[in-house]
Design goal:
With about 425 residues, this protein is an alpha/beta fold. It contains 12 helices and 16 strands. Helix 2 runs antiparallel to helix 5 and helix 4 packs antiparallel against helix 5. The protein binds aspartic acid.
Amino acid sequence: MIVCKFGGSSVAEAQQIKKVKKIVDSDPRRQVIIVSAPGKRSKDDEKVTDMLHACNAMVQQELSCKDLFKKISLRYTTILSDLGLQTKPFLPVLEEVRQMIDAGHGAEYAASRGEYLAARMVATYFGWEFLDTDPLIVINHDGTVNPETWDNLKKALKPNVKYVVPGFYGCDPEGKVKTFSRGGSDITGAILASATKAETYENWTDVSGIFSVDPRLIPDAKVIKEMTYREVRELAGVGAGVFHEEAIAPILASGIPINVKNTNAPSDDGTMILPTREIGDHPLVGISGKGGFSRLSLRKLMLFKRTGIRHALLTMLHIFGVRPSFSLFGVDSMVWFFETTQASDSVLDAMCSRLKGEFDLEEVSIDHGHAIVGIIGSGVMQHSSVIATSTNALAHDKIGLNFFNYGSSDTSILIGVSDIQAQEAVKSLYKALF
Ligand code: ASP
């Protein structure tokens, strides 16, 4: 059996959903499909999920979302009638959702309704069963999948029944609707693929696979034919957007191949994501960069003499909502990079004073505007010449380097540059290495 996830652009309008039907009908093994909420139909269009967040924001200000919700209703009723379906039976469903948002069921409930409505609509069009993921998929408060999920799905999925499943949400352990992070329908797809022991998990999007570099930076960027779970995870971790970075976890143990494909060009091979691959002459698969990091630097003579110091410092950071993504340790110093959006300047000032006082530090400073660029590939450790080529290219293009991480993973080299030079760094490295 094949489990297919179709992204927001694949369900954005009737003509796209017709393509989805054609794809699904062309292979009888495609028996479970997961859908996102309708995405943008053009560059300036709005995603349904964003409109639902806006509805919830109005309710937070004690205003009714009634008018704004009309735009959402229109998105669905237009699709339904363009598909030749009756809109009437769907109106009470839309109205119930609107009332629940207005009654203050919160941001995650509101955001989840885009997928809920899309799956119900597609299920009607296909004549397939609608399978709600609330309360089957249980999402822990930290966003990980609760193991109860597997049992729940096992009991709910009947053999020889074809299902349309909403992506992006489930419920928390207390039974309240909970969403994954943005783009999380990829995770739902991975969960369903794993639960059904699918032979393949197809992830249908609007590009013909995962590119070795952002095609907006390098127009002749190539689609990666084959990559490993770990490579896709590391590439997504440094900003490559096609596949959600947390979607590997549910599928890891089963080894199910993932095929990223294009709804608008279904005969293109796309990218195969596998547990392992032949490295051969291709040690690297891609380069990507992610901006928006801040740097926290600490210094104190004999800092590490104190037992448990790293743990104590990290605990303090967590108290202020700071969860570092990357770290560096020197003889008497420590540097952490974290996402700038995690804390405001005033919170960071308070955190620095606490750190300085409680740990008697000589120096504590924070600066913003950092980016991390990742060179990804399972062969990076066997090909140390990648280091020389990379640093030469960056020096040649006058790109300053403030972080270099080689050896913490056998699949990546991470390089810190300033936010404003991040795109130049990606281009420079791609030209030198690929
Ligand atoms: N609709 C959600 C989002 O826009 C989830 C998804 O598309 O996977 O993030």
